[in-house]
UniProtKB/TrEMBL annotation:
Residues 1-21 form the signal peptide. InterPro entries: MglB-2_Peripla_BP, Peripla_BP_I, SBP_2_dom. Keywords: Signal. It comes from Schleiferilactobacillus shenzhenensis LY-73. Residues 343-413 form the MglB-2 periplasmic binding protein domain. Residues 43-277 form the Periplasmic binding protein domain. Pfam families: Peripla_BP_4, Peripla_BP_7. The keyword Signal applies. This is MglB. Coiled coil: none annotated.
Length: 422
């Protein structure tokens, strides 16, 4: 009896030892095939919000080079900002005979600013002001701060611009601009924008000839609550499906930041790192099933460790080509082999579960690419206000093989990397 009990005990101990060996004994690592990978060495991609100083815009290279498999995926913010600004200017020029609603010789516009500390918002504000001639230099760059109310043109943040069309010179004035932040602190807030346009309209009336917005979420809120009824062209950014469809109803235009390319790159760089594939596989060069991006759809900045998708203006001339906002990029739509690229688990967060672009366009694309790339992605939705609302749900990084991070504030890269270093 004693011998039998001893044998049973040894069997249990051996089973436990085998189980520990299979799972990996380190608290800060996970097992990838036969190789155990520490959390600090797992692939990381920052997306949509580039790690940077929210005041100066200086890139946070410590976050961008956290390990050898860390990259950023976004879009060329400056190129996109220029596209938006020039799109608005071109619209004014083409419609100069009717756009000055009160006939005072001044083309007045209002501007909805997303997050004053976000690089993309800063770039878009600068792009509009530069194109329309209302930009004021501050510290060697265009001042991107909100002007507040400026119906009298006395603001120091912006200046009156001018535009000559058909021999006649018109004054261009930024009548009002503000950060669209709600009472809870969430920025890029559509509801706030919808309420604000009503306030602006009650004070400025027919002085408002154009509405500009840092994104389509805020732009559509203003369009639906005021601009559409008053036939005032409204311009946004992101090419969300509702905004593209609204162009047929008078929405002035938007900018496609190639969300299909961005979403693909977000997961593709992780897939390549997990497979030990060459960095540009399926991006710059065809993978084994033929996936590859066209050269004019993105750029890679090696010094910044960043992939940037290119931007395209979406107007009444071409909006029908952009009606399917969640359609995968045709050249990267082929299923990877599970034998060569076995399923891996990815932790991915979206800073605000209510964000229109990320929720209605980016996330659906990510889900489609996850399936094509054999990635099991766990999506985490934040509240758009506090980093801890997201980081608190990264309690056991050892469960995951890779991470895709969309911060609330661009300064907070260390909030995530410090967890992975534990």
């Amino acid at each position: 009896m004693k011998k039998t009990k001893t044998l049973w005990t040894m069997t249990l101990m051996l089973g436990a030892a085998l189980l520990l060996a299979a799972c990996g004994s380190g608290s800060g690592s996970s097992s990838t095939g036969s190789k155990t990978v520490a959390n600090k060495d797992k692939p990381v991609v920052w997306f949509n919000r580039q790690p940077s100083n929210s005041t100066t815009g200086k890139l946070d290279m410590a976050a961008l080079s956290f390990n050898k498999d860390t990259y950023y995926v976004g879009f060329d913010a400056n190129q996109g900002a220029k596209v938006q600004g020039e799109m608005i200017k071109s619209y004014i020029e083409k419609n100069i005979a009717t756009i000055d609603r009160n006939g005072d010789g001044t083309i007045g516009y209002v501007l909805a600013i997303g997050d004053v500390g976000h690089n993309d918002s800063i770039a878009r504000t600068r792009g509009v002001r530069t194109a329309l001639g209302t930009a004021v230099s501050k510290g060697g760059a265009v001042n991107s701060a909100p002007a507040g109310m400026n119906s009298d043109g006395k603001s120091k943040v912006v200046k009156d611009g001018s535009l000559t069309v058909n021999g006649k010179t018109y004054k261009i004035r930024e009548l009002a601009s503000q950060e669209m932040k709600n009472n809870s602190g969430a920025t890029w807030d559509a509801a706030t924008a919808g309420n604000t346009i009503g306030t602006w309209a009650s004070s400025l009336g027919k002085q408002i000839d154009v509405v500009a917005s840092n994104n389509d979420g805020m732009g559509m809120a203003m369009f639906n609550s005021w601009s559409k009824e008053n036939k005032v062209p409204t311009f946004g950014y992101d090419a969300n499906s509702d905004a593209v469809a609204a162009i047929a109803e008078g929405y002035g235009g938007t900018v496609s930041q190639h969300a299909d390319v961005q979403a693909y790159l977000t997961l593709r760089v992780l897939r390549n790192a997990l497979d030990g594939a060459k960095k540009g596989t399926g991006i710059e060069t065809k993978d084994s099933v033929g996936n590859m991006l066209a050269k004019d759809t993105f750029v890679y900045n090696e010094k910044q460790r960043s992939y940037y998708a290119m931007n395209v203006a979406v107007t009444a001339d071409n909006y029908k080509d952009f009606t399917e906002s969640t359609k995968v990029y045709e050249g990267a739509s082929h299923q990877l082999s599970k034998s060569k690229s076995p399923e891996k688990k990815v932790w991915l967060d979206i800073y605000n579960s209510s964000d229109n672009f990320l929720g209605s366009t980016y996330q659906p694309l990510l889900k489609k690419y996850a399936k094509l790339l054999n990635l099991n992605v766990e999506f985490i939705g934040g509240d758009g206000q506090t980093e801890s609302n997201i980081t608190n749900r990264l309690g056991n990084p050892s469960e995951y093989d890779a991470f895709a991070i969309n911060m609330v504030k661009t300064d907070n890269g260390s909030s995530y990397t410090s967890i992975l270093k534990q």
